[in-house]
Structure formats: C-alpha cells, structure tokens
Design brief:
7-stranded parallel beta sheet; 246 residues; 10 helices; two-stranded parallel sheet; single chain; Rossmann fold; alpha/beta; globular
Length: 246
C-alpha cells in the first residue's frame, strides 16, 4: 500500500488518478481549491482518504507548511502528484502583466514551491516518486498559447535538473507531457481527434509512475508529432497555420 499526496486533486485528471489509487488500496491526502469538488471526491473515495486540505496553491509562501501537514497525516509519502494548472488568456497575457504573471505563477512557480519541500523530504527518505503533469505546449512556442507554453517549458527544464539531482537518492521524478484532454479546462476548445479522455490519460500516468518512467508524452502519439514540430525551421513553422495560427 502506497501513501499518495495529490495536489490539485479536484482537476479532472487528478481526480481520476486518485480514484485509481484508492481502488488498489492506497492511502490518499487530497489538496484542492474547489470545496464542492473536493467534498464530492472525498465522498466517492471514502475511507482511503486519510486527510484533505482546501486551499489555493498559488499562495506559494504557505505551500511548505501544507506539504508538511500532508506528510504528517499520511505518516510519510511514497507518491506525490502535482496536477494543478491553468491555461489562462493568451491574448490578455500579451498586453497585461497581471494576466501573464498569473499563468506563470500557477504553472511554474507554484509547482516549484511544492517540489522544493517534497524533494527534500524524499531525498532524506531515500525513496519515493514525484510526478508532475506538464504539457506538450512546452516543447515549442506557438502564438496560440506561448505564455502557458513558456511556463511549462521552464517547469520541464526544472524537472530535468531535479531528476538528475534525485537519481542518486533513489527518488523518481516523472514528467508527463500531456496533449489536449477533454476536461472542464478545455470546455471552450474545439475537440479534434487528438483530444484524449481524462480517465485514459490518468491510467497512463499511474502506469508510468509504477514503471518509473522519467518523461513521457501522454498519449504516446504526441512524441513523433512533437519530434517533427520541435525541429521545424521557423521559416516553415510560421507558414503552417495549424501551428503558427491563433
């Protein structure tokens, strides 16, 4: 039985992951911002939830104490999942610093404020897993979402460095680069064939953690797609409306 901390537990993918962990008998501590969603998730998972915390993880100064509280309630932590994020308003972020700052705070600074205490704890223990939900948007800047993409790119690089640091301690650091998923966060987006379901994505992430995968595209078909997109010269990239369009 594992002790699992889920940060951003009320997001669609994280809730699905929590359900999978509960089904196999793991103990859970859930952290989420939406009180109604958090209450419904706790009710659904029942006794597998040993503790919960309703808070805004953008309050980075308080995240260290929140992590300590969760670890104490769980009696330690074997798996920590960081799953919160926000797409934000790209156009607003190009003209208003407050909009850009919010996207960077939620998607980059807030996760790092959680990774710091979690990594230090697991390093002392000499075991455990840190899993972070990132995005394919971090692989190449696109006009449609480059502020969000920049935050995810920074997070991906941070995780690369953290993974190498934690390797000697026997701690797994896992980056999951997600393509678009049909969730409330993308409710206003046109759903193409490349969209995935939250339950399918959650299952692949749980499996990836179990298999100690360092970095994975979810679903896997994004790896060859982004392999081409990453190396495409800008002179070509900017002429492809599907990539460089709004």
């Amino acid at each position: 039985m594992s002790r699992v901390l889920v940060l951003g537990a009320t997001s669609a993918i994280a809730a699905q992951m929590a359900s999978q962990y509960a089904a196999r008998g793991d103990s859970l501590f859930l952290v989420g911002r939406n009180p109604d969603k958090l209450a419904r998730l706790r009710e659904r998972l029942g006794a597998r939830v040993v503790g919960h915390l309703e808070c805004d993880l953008d309050d980075t100064a308080a995240n260290g104490s929140r992590v300590e509280e969760a670890i104490a309630k769980l009696g330690g932590v074997d798996i920590a999942v960081i799953a919160h994020g926000v797409l934000g308003d790209q156009l607003a972020s190009e003209h208003q610093w407050c909009s850009a700052e919010q996207i960077l705070l939620t998607n980059l600074l807030s996760p790092i404020s959680l990774l710091l205490p979690l990594a230090n704890h697991l390093e002392r223990c000499g075991s455990g897993h840190l899993a972070v939900l990132s995005s394919v948007a971090g692989d190449r800047g696109r006009p449609r979402n480059f502020t969000y993409g920049a935050a995810k790119a920074g997070l991906n690089v941070y995780l690369q460095g953290l993974r190498s640091r934690m390797w000697a301690a026997g701690v797994g650091v896992h980056t999951f680069k997600l393509g678009p998923v049909d969730t409330p966060m993308t409710v206003d987006h046109h759903k193409s064939l490349l969209f995935s379901r939250a339950d399918v994505v959650a299952r692949k992430i749980v499996m990836g953690i179990d298999r100690d995968v360092a970095e994975a595209y979810v679903p896997g078909y994004w790896r060859p797609i982004l392999g081409v997109v990453r190396v495409m010269p800008e002179s070509i990239f900017q002429r492809v409306s599907a990539l460089a369009g709004r």
